[in-house]
Amino acid sequence: MLQKSAVTPDVLRQVRLIELRTRRLVNSLFAGEYRSIFKGHGMEFAEVREYLPGDEVRAIDWNVTARMHRPFVKRYIEERELTVMLAVDLSGSSQFGTVSRFKAELSTELAAVLTMSAVRNNDRVGVLIFTDRVEHVVPPGKGRRHALRIIRDVLVHKPEGRGTDIGAALEYLNRMLAHRSIVFLISDLADPGLERPLKFLAQRHDVVVAPLEDPAEWQLPDIGIARFVDPETGAVVSVDTSDRRVREEFARASDAERAARRQLLRRLAIDEVPVNTRDGYLEALLRFFRARGRRVRRRW
Fold this sequence. Notes:
This protein has 300 residues and is of the alpha/beta class. The protein contains eight helices and eleven strands.
């Protein structure tokens, strides 16, 4: 549970600043994009009306048609309300960043803009914070006060674990979410056992993965002998970064890992929104919204 002592005036000011920044983005950029790609999953009966050219034959109400001696169709309206669940990874590797912010800060900003987008569209939104265990859960709810609670909880949560167990988090969500929901997994995916839990979750829910990255994970800087500490295990390794072959091998391994991740998500039909500590989330999220919007329109 969240410690009351963490909710200080300074924390409340930070939450308010994040709300103001993300609300402007949502109102100016994301609200329409969000609504256009996340449609309600249920359909509610509205009325029966006379058949018009272009109506689907399968929508014909044969009982009314027989009584009226001319074709009528059933009309349904979309049940707009959705449930959005954010799964936020705050394991030890989230406290890494070599540019303008740590991954944990990027997680908070991304979670905030998704939360405000959901609330702006009157959807229910909740959050699950995890490391190598599920640490904190806010069940889905509505309204500004609920949104501010989510932002605050992600901002001030002090993780107990340092490792990463994405499988445990996704299995928890599968048990928790009774109806089809939109699940955003916000994590650097530092867990090799991804495929099975992702596959099971995607069978029941609309899953979007937002991998958190830092430029130093793509290319080693040429800074001579450097000691690297694994933030999750504490293991220390010394690397001669002045060796060109070492830097090239590191880059190849990094590229191969990212390619394997993309291939896995593509195979599972899961959307990917890579965000990084240098560029932030704005352009990546807009590209995702627009690409998915084009797919939705093609299906129409």
